Amino acid sequence: MNAVPAPKSPPKARDAARTAETILRAAQTLFAARGYTTTGVREVAAAAGVNSALVCRYFGSKEGLLRAAVEEFLIIDVFFDGDRGDFGTRSVGLLLTAETLPNPVAMMILATADPAARILCADLLHERIIVPLAAWLGGPDGLARAGQLNLLWVGFMVARQILPTRPVHDFETATVRWLAETTQTIADGATTPENGSLPPERIAS
């Protein structure tokens, strides 16, 4: 009589995915708080409660881990989900919501101390945010306007989350309203390509 084969163990894919996610969350927290250059693979592994060899197994290298850590937050499509006329208000709302997550701007800024990491973050920001944003904005100056929005948003997030400045906090409501209005103005194409200034009628209003 043949023995009944023992049931196979559950696939390890789910465990692998869970381990990879645990490593990623630990890396995001450490990269945002301490910086890429001062955080080692062993420290990430220790925070995740795994062997350091698993970091390289799942992410290839420390640089690959940084790519995954930053890439997860660079999603622009959600900004387009809604009426174009509400883009400014919607965008600012999403920026404020992002404050509850590990700070991607902090991860990227702190990573700039490493030349390779700086290039990686710049490339990711361009490919994942600026290029698709430019396509959505449209027009011959779409790329320039996308760059303006990137500067505006990153500057706001730095001033609010990384290096807080008193005006941002003392006049928070006015600042948020200004950011939403300026974002909408750029999205509407209400800037001149020569100097990037607002038309006289916009300034007067």
TrEMBL record:
Keywords: DNA-binding. InterPro entries: Homeodomain-like_sf, HTH-type_TetR-like_transc_reg, HTH_TetR, Tet_transcr_reg_TetR-rel_C_sf, TetR_C_16. Residues 17-77 form the HTH tetR-type domain. Signal peptide: none annotated. The keyword DNA-binding applies. It holds the Pfam family TetR_C_16. Residues 185-205 are annotated as: Disordered. Residues 40-59 bind DNA. This is TetR family transcriptional regulator. It comes from Sphingomonas psychrolutea.
